[in-house]
Amino acid sequence: MCSDRLTRYVVDQTLELSPEFIKQNAGVIPLLFQVSLLSEVDVRVERISDLFLNFVEHITSFDAALVYIWAPQDAWFCRGLQGEVPERIENGDIFTVTVRDTAKPILIPDASETGLEVHELPIMFHSMIALPIYKDTKIIGCLELFRKSGPCFDINDLVLIKHLLLGSENILQQVISPETDYDDALDIRMDVPQKHVLLDILNQYEELSRRMSFPLSVAILEIEDRDKFGLYQHIPEGIRTLKTLAKRIQNGLRRYDKVIRYEELSFFAILPGCSSQDAVTALHNATLNLGADLANNMTIGIATLPDEAQDAKGLINIAHQALSHAKKKGIHMARYSQTGAIRPTNLSLELRMKKIISSGPHIEVLNELLDLLRIQSQADDISIRYEPPGSPVSWQGHDLGYLYHQGLSEDIYEWIVTYITPSWAVALGLDPDTRNWYLGMLTTASILSDLRAGYPMGYSIRVADQMFTLAKEMGKGETQAAQWANSALAANIGYLGIPTSIFTKGEITPFDRKKIGSHTYIGSKILQDVSVLDLSDDIVMYHHENMDGSGYPRGLKGGEIPLGARAMRVIDTYNAITTPRLYRFQLSQQEALRELCAMSGKALDPDITSLFVDVIGF
To answer: Which of 88, 140, 329, 498 has the most beta carbons within 10 angstroms of its beta carbon?
Structure first.
């Protein structure tokens, strides 16, 4: 094929607007953004193509321009051909084919060096560029610019025209299909209900969500009173009204969100990367833009993956349940988590824990923490009381009150009462040292995170004890060793922001691993306001970094990893592999020793690993 000879002219480099480039081209940069305003200019549609090419001409000079469009239907327009219109122009040319096949721009500085025959060219030229035209993420056409003499096109021209095209998507769409009712990205019609194909569409979004490790929220928006707004969907006026409503809701959301007709009088919104709470805010704002009458005549059910559903089919089902709940309660909008059908242990405890752990000494704060333990342990009640019933609790000869518990195992109770008692004493004013309040709260929170992740009781406390011992062996003073130990105690508190269902699976998927990996960020956010204990954010944030750079969250390597985080990585690895999990067996001490040695120098710091092995006393 003749297009094969154009391979060397295909541009692979990224065409970005760097600060230096913007500075050098300050005179034309504003035009790249002004072109988007053409869609708001009161002008006949047939004139928009001329206005668009006027913008192109202000960006870079050219003698002739060809614009080819092949989706949703073939179209073309041009400038400067002066009687040279190629035969069968609607089929494109060799440059069109190359752009379409490679999805990349072409830059030909000098046509005489291409080796192409005259009859192969759409027009005679000296230099040319060609760029793909996108709608959403799909290539729908190609822009070709030609110079017959004068200076050659260069890479700067490509950068400028690329960003002009990015701002021109809406106006080009008006030229191509001013009354289109078709969504090219989803490959569906927008003027008819699409319930029958929704699952296929949502499966694609689910795959992207899992691959990119972001949440996916959806919503069903249903109109309650059709007669009030004349929405007789089987007549043209009703259909046009519904199409207009869908577009107005879409315009109130982000560009990459989607709103489609679902059933006769309902819409389905797809909000990638949107948490459940963010979806509530986005849809509230979008429906407000419709006006109070219509917004109040619409009921919305919201669901989110992966927190509330495991797959696309389940997401649709629970969105219906949320919608049904909203109707039953007579409210405008409901999330699935409000229905009471979701297991409480799968709800994120991040925000509540952040508030609790940073609060000062008070009995109500202790009861808030105990309520989180109640949720996680699925007990009926755990609370502090001033009189029976309950188990009496004392501290250094002082009676504190009663700890009432129902449906809680004695094992968990013993752990809780041991570590919440010091905080209780501070809250009652019996102990003036507020550090004991925060340390008791932090230790109790570590028990909660162990429960969340399915670790044995006291896992984090054991890790903290080993961290203190190792820090002393590394020559650290009492104060820094205590700081490292407390930070190790808190290192897994971020698990409280991750659904329990992930930890109780028999097999962990790559998506689940990414979700679990986010606990370092979550933990850092929870603890950022706890200044009294002087915790090391480096240990909380970077204790899963590896010496070879293969860890997370930042992929640090070697000496880039803080020393405390390297020590924590060794200790946490040893305790993790010697602890039974649903998705793998625990290792014996000897097997763990061999595993640590194998990881030394790769994931683990070799010097710290060797010292830890000596300390642990294999």
So the answer is: 498
